[in-house]
Amino acid sequence: MSVALKNLYLSLKRWRTTRIINSIYHKAPVVRCGSQCGGFSILVPEQKDNLVVMSFGIGTDLSFSEDIVKLLNPTIYAFDPTPKSIAYVKQHPLYTSPKFKFEEIGISDADQIVEFHLPKNPDYVSGSMETHNGLQTESIQVQMNSFTTICKAHNIQKVDILKLDIEGSEFKVLPNVLKSGIPIAQICVETHERFFADKRQKIESLIHTLASAGYKCVAKDFVENVYTFVLE
């Protein structure tokens, strides 16, 4: 396949993904929280008492949580099993806040200890259960729990904002999250379909699953693959 044909093929695949997301897009007055690389847009809740935010995948950027605290003052439950991230969080001022709860685990579709691959580039942070060219063949073992197990452990009965930046695991985690029966008002997710050969099928299936569960897209960034979905 020539370079021109390959570029056309990739453009058509991106166009189809864009069209699917646009089909459930609803313009809303969202507010950006966090840095350019670690932030998401949210719809500010009308009711701001006793808000619960769950953030999976921290890396070395807590700017999303920092801005959420200033804006909403919720209880934040944060999770990341990556060694560099754990060290970063423990030295951050938020770590000592009574409204910031950090746990050294990841989220999966089952409770299990998994092989977790760290990035080849020592300057990078985020690891993954998935495998791709940017990760080491060697791995470490980390604890993963399901969304239901995590919520039960923290007595969480509803979630106002769920943030997922979990390096490709979102495609199996989100369907499991939606089956939990726990109400989630907003879902902020960075998608990593680029890691997979069947990337188009993965993102289309994910959007279909969210739409079927009653979610509309209120924020979209097709360059960074960052989206916010709100339950109607």
Could you give a short account of the major beta sheet? Answer: 7 strands, mixed
Q: Mean pLDDT across all residues, rounded?
A: 88
- What is the count of helical runs? 6
CATH superfamily: Vaccinia Virus protein VP39
CATH topology group: Rossmann fold
Give the CATH class: Alpha Beta
- Counting DSSP E segments of at least 2 residues, the number of strands comes to 12
Total of domains? 1
Instruction: Using the alpha-carbon principal axes, give the shape.
Output: globular
* Terminal Cα span: 44 Å
Helical amount: 25-40%
Class based on secondary structure composition and strand pairing: alpha/beta
Q: Radius of gyration over alpha carbons?
A: 17 Å
Question: Which ranges are low-confidence, i.e. pLDDT below 50, for 5 or more consecutive residues?
Answer: 5-10
> Based on the structure given, which CATH architecture is correct?
3-Layer(aba) Sandwich
Order of helices and strands: HEEEHEHEEEEHEHEHEE
**Portion in beta strands:** 25-35%
Q: Give the strand line-up of the largest sheet.
A: 5-4-3-9-10-12-11
Description:
This protein is an alpha/beta fold. It has a single domain, classed as Vaccinia Virus protein VP39 (Rossmann fold), CATH 3.40.50. It is 29% helix and 30% strand. It contains six helices and twelve strands. The strands form three sheets. Strands 5-4-3-9-10-12-11 form a seven-stranded mixed β-sheet, covered by helices on one side. A three-stranded mixed β-sheet has the order 6-8-7. The chain has a two-stranded antiparallel ribbon with strand order 1-2. β1 and β2 form a beta hairpin. α1 packs parallel to α6. It is globular. The termini are far apart. About 3% of the residues have low confidence.
